Amino acid sequence: LNSRLPQVGATIFSTMSALAQAHGAVNLGQGFPDFDCDPALIEAVHAAMRDGHNQYPPMPGVPALRQAVATKLQATHGQAYCPEREITITAGATQAILCALLAIVHPGDEVIVLEPCYDSYAPNIALAGGVLVRVPLDPETFRPDFDRIRAALTPRTRALIINTPHNPSATVWSDAEMRNLADLLRGSQALLISDEVYEHMVYDGQAHQSVARFPELAARSLIVSSFGKTFHVTGWKVGYVAAPAALSAEFRKVHQYTVFSVNTPVQLGLSRYLADPRPYLDLPAFYQRKRDHFRAGLAQCRLRLLPSEGSYFQCVDYRELEAGRALNDAEFCQWLTREVGVAAIPVSAFHADKQDQARASQDKIIRFCFAKKDATLDRALALLRQL
Ligand code: PMP
Ligand code: GLN
Predict the structure, then answer these.
(1) Which InterPro entries match (predicted)?
(2) Which of 12, 14, 94, 312 to mutate to test the pocket of ligand 1 (most atoms within 8 A of CB)?
(3) 12-30+282-384 is classed in which CATH architecture?
């Protein structure tokens, strides 16, 4: 077969979750909670089903949910998005990102990603016929290097994808970095896809700097988010895109012919649940406590901790370990799963290019997900302490 995606196999998340299951390992690999969501959210979805809301919703989403998203964006970032024309409910962030790219990229257009980055970006750009332009984040700090981004911008740059809080490095862009980005893009036609799925997981009193806070950036941005992350329901696959009306109209043309619309009772349940902001306002404290607990345990292991400013990820460097000397990060994650009983994700998997991946795999950095019950984290820590 003449494959459209010849380089693509099973994702690292499927691979590591399957390996964790096969070996009965504690799965701190693929990013998902091992605890359930708020029963009130389940009840709200049940109620919508019982009330007979079981047919197609409007193509761009249930109006009450679009209104709830607009209210949340206004309250958290002070930016008005029109629920009728500027917010679209999607089948998770994954569908949103693909459709955003399909909507804006013409064959041959360049799309800049900042690596390491989420694994769907590069194949999605390929499917849209775009040319992938890979710009490394700073290799020590994983922060954006604006000189390199500036050097990568050309008149053919159609879009730049950013992601804060960042998967896998758990960095959070500062206000100054967002302003730098705005300065840099001034005068360029480039659009922005801003992947903000971890928007409500920012720690130590920092604020999430959504592009929505920066009118110049917001004007050229499709903001992507995911209720799966915010409300502990990754399996529901519901998210949203917020973008100015003209961009949203283009986005909806593609959305309309990919899924047309998204699960009605789940949308209605979410809209009712969002009437109370506490569940997402309480999320930073909820995850910060888990992060601190996990980091305190890791500090007693022979692993070097990297910062975790946001998201539910914690990266560590294992170069001090005897067992890790000869192993690159992918091999080490396999070994850790099979022999120690803890699954993690190699950070090199967030590089699209094979050579780059090979180089990054020698940085010996792996990613743990701490969206787990304390008992799960403690089981993993007990095993990691034996390293
Ligand atoms: N972007 C990033 C950075 C992610 O970590 C994820 C979650 N795996 C997604 C997008 C996809 O989100 P969803 O599960 O809503 O499709
Ligand atoms: N976003 C999740 C992660 O980074 C994985 C989602 C998936 O399995 N595709 O772990």
Answers:
(1) Aminotransferase_I/II_large, Kynurenine-oxoglutarate_AT, PyrdxlP-dep_Trfase, PyrdxlP-dep_Trfase_major, PyrdxlP-dep_Trfase_small
(2) 94
(3) Alpha-Beta Complex (3.90)
Q: What is the pLDDT of residue 32?
A: 98
Question: Candidates 3.10.20.30, 1.20.140.150, 3.30.70.1070, 3.40.640.10; correct CATH number of 39-277?
Answer: 3.40.640.10
Distance 128 CA to ligand 1 centre (A): 19
Determine contact, residues 165/198, Cβ cutoff 8 Å: yes
| Model pLDDT, residue 185 | 98
Q: How far is the centre of ligand 1, averaged over its atoms, from the C-alpha of 244 (Å)?
A: 22
Residue 271 has pLDDT above 90, yes or no: yes
> Helices in 140-235 by DSSP H: which ranges?
146-152, 175-185, 215-218, 227-230
Asked if domains 12-30+282-384 and 39-277 share a fold, the reply is no
Neighbours of 5 (CB within 10 A): 11
Closest CA to 275 of 8, 32, 40: 40
In the chain, where the domains are located: 12-30+282-384, 39-277
Band of residue 7 on the pLDDT scale cut at 50, 70, 90: confident
Whole-angstrom Cα distance, residue 129 to residue 114?
19
- pTM of the complete model: 0.98
| Ligand 1 geometric centre to CA of 377 (Å) | 22
Q: Whose CA is nearest to atom 3 of ligand 2?
A: 31
Query: To which residue do tokens 């292991």 refer?
Result: 301
